[in-house]
Specification:
Strand content: 15-25%
Distance between the termini: 108 Å
CATH topology of one domain: Sufe protein. Chain: A
Number of helices: 5
CATH architecture of one domain: Alpha-Beta Complex
Strand order of the largest sheet: 1-2-3
Structural class: alpha+beta
Shape: rod-shaped
Number of strands: 3
Helix content: 40-55%
Length: 163
């Protein structure tokens, strides 16, 4: 019975490299599982037209086609990326005729690419006589839409006839 002794030499540098690569491999596997797991974003994957915000304690007031506005141009300032952007709402006595940005710089438009398309969508709905509380938007532009609707609401509060 002769026992052959085998000596294995492990260099500390090789152990450290192996440990680092093993940790990185596990992180990549977890990342891929997290990204590609089915059913991960079921709430955000389909377009949502629900404008109710459960965290918002104050619902949007409807703006129907009653003579409730003083005709004119009303603006509200938004601060985006440290720069001011004005949301201009033009109303006549019956309703909203136009909603647009004033002083929208190229840098803000680049930093917030959903800003202009979202405002165009909201504007077309409001100019068609749709009340402010029934404006629809997609899930991708939910937060952008909520910010813009709040700015429009503030402008319309300036335009309302005091009773």
């Amino acid at each position: 019975m002769s026992a052959q002794t085998k000596i294995v030499v492990l260099h500390m540098k090789e152990l450290i490299y192996t440990g680092i690569f093993a940790v990185l491999g596990i992180l990549f596997i977890v990342l891929f599982i997290f990204i590609f797991a089915p059913g991960r974003n079921d709430n955000n994957s389909s377009p949502s037209h629900d404008t109710s915000d459960k965290n918002n304690s104050e619902p949007f007031e409807p703006t129907s086609n009653m003579n409730v506005y003083i005709p004119g141009i009303y603006t509200t300032e938004l601060m985006l990326g440290g720069q001011a952007v004005d949301v201009e709402v033009i109303v006549d006595s019956e309703g909203i005729t136009s909603v647009q940005f004033i002083n929208l710089s190229e840098s803000v438009a680049t930093m917030y690419p959903l800003l202009q398309p979202t405002l165009d969508s909201i504007s077309s709905q409001l100019c068609d006589g749709q009340p402010l509380d029934t404006v629809t938007y997609t899930a991708e532009s939910k937060y952008t839409s909520l910010v813009l609707l709040e700015a429009i609401k503030q402008s319309l509060s300036k335009a309302q006839i005091a009773e």
